[in-house]
Design goal:
Number of strands: 6
Strand content: 5-15%
Helix content: 40-55%
Radius of gyration: 35 Å
Number of helices: 14
Largest sheet: 2 strands, antiparallel
Length: 374
Amino acid sequence: MAKGSKKEVMFERMQEQKKEVKVVRKIVFWIALALIVAVALGGFFGYRYIKSALEPMEADSDKKVVVEIPIGSGLDTISQILEEKGLIQNAKIFKYYAKVNNESDFQAGTYDLTKSMTPDELLKSLKTGKVYRTPVFTLTIPEGLTVEQIADKVASKTSISNKDFIAYIDADSTIEMLKASYPQIVTDEVKNEEIRHPLEGYLFPATYPFYEDEPTVQTVVETFLNGTKTNVVPYLGALEEKKKSVHWLLTFASLLEREATAQADRQTIASVFYNRIEADMPLQTDPTVLYSLGEHKDKVTHKDLEVKNAYNTYQNKGLPPGPIAAPGAESIEAVIDPSDTGYLYFLADKTGKNHFAKTYEQHLEYKAKYIDGK
């Protein structure tokens, strides 16, 4: 082969190699570009997905979702529970979000959460045992109110009339539903025919936040019952030891709530009632007479004491058939942990101070001194 021909062949091969290199470069360029676009799109859509996963599930929802966080639950378990309850979109993203923000030390317990809560609100609630949201309004129920008085309080803050409130809490269907929802609290004892209102004493006095303009009567009642559950459940063990029921506890505590003016008095009055029951004496507490009469009076007369009614503890020994008002935490605690005394009598002077006596003679002396002014 001629030298010129060899050079031409080599030149052609070099040209072909250059073309191949250009093609390879183009392929590499387009592959790299495709990868960059894919990464960018993946990052964009990944960001959008993560961002949406950290938003409230239903921004306008005020419906409560009851969540039970067991003792010893870690972040994995909590995240899974929240996803199963529909409060977060993705358990893994919520878990990593919490870890990035160094969130830990979550509290076990029962929470009333909503789908409108953000991850930050959920985390803050689970760390402190409280639900952090701005309420639309609050409703305060003072200690010692009857259900009629509570109905008036509800009517003053909501569109629920006092008549509708009473009708709801007295309905058999309501009681059956609450028995199923609150088996530790609401039992067949509230269905005693002598009881005026089944839920008397069961609507716990406190200040409650509400997160919707017009809560239903069921929401309001269950909110109050949750307050009772929170304050009574810690004493279930003590009640079991005493072989007593929650109904007994709330009934006893309601008498203290209407009689006492201070915590020390509650515990001492509780000891008086225990002592009188043990001695087979009637409790003879005036608030039960007023409840029997169904009206408020500044002074109970001798005629009032003779009223024939199951709630009248002058005419009937032991506790009345049910609570006469809503007892607070201090009264409930006083029933469980009363003072140890030998008192059988007490009376309040004109300033409201209680005077306790071990004998009837001493009680009469106090009456003459502090009531009759002799």
